[in-house]
Design brief:
Helix content is 37%, strand content 12%. The chain has 172 residues and is of the alpha/beta class.
């Protein structure tokens, strides 16, 4: 068990739902008690995150994990707040987190060989697992009831992207 204080910053509803499922199932190297304000944060701008969440004193520095699909998105924390952060780690799922649904359905080759640019469009057109592909509630309910599958596809995704930091890197 890791006692480090962490902030999980999710890019979208799906990322937030997945991290919440993993925290609820105690599947991460961190527990919800390790998480800043015990919640997954939705804030993509470093300055806004710092002003909203780093204005307090903490017993230790915070490790920030950003769950997103882009490798190049900037997250600049003002210098005054930088001493409160131990590290910022981007956990990526490219080109979108909906890639996990494609892996779940064993359609990775079909997707990569097809005409689709975005996994979310492929998921909408090919599966009926979710009414709303980008909905927090639908994703939380689905992945919560398919927890073992979630762990499997996170590890499978990591096997395709071994040189990148992914959510699988913080699984127990």
């Amino acid at each position: 068990m890791n006692n480090e204080l962490v902030a999980f910053i999710a890019e979208g509803n799906t990322e937030q739902a997945i991290i919440d499922v993993l925290l609820d199932h105690d599947a991460l190297i961190y527990t919800r008690e390790n998480v800043l304000q015990e919640e997954v944060i939705r804030c993509r701008i470093g300055k806004k995150f710092a002003k909203q969440y780093l204005n307090k004193s903490f017993g230790s520095k915070i490790h920030v994990y950003r769950i997103l699909d882009s490798r190049v998105e900037n997250f600049i924390v003002p210098k005054a707040y930088q001493p409160k952060i131990s590290e910022i780690t981007n956990l990526t799922t490219r080109p979108e987190i909906e890639m996990l649904f494609i892996l779940l359905h064993n359609d990775y080759k079909k997707y990569t060989n097809g005409r689709y640019k975005k996994p979310s469009i492929f998921v909408k057109e090919n599966y009926s697992d979710l009414k709303k592909v980008k909905s927090y509630e639908d994703n939380f309910q689905f992945w919560n009831s398919h927890y073992d599958d979630l762990i499997r596809v996170l590890k499978q995704y990591k096997s395709y992207h071994q040189n990148e930091a992914t959510i699988a890197d913080i699984l127990r």
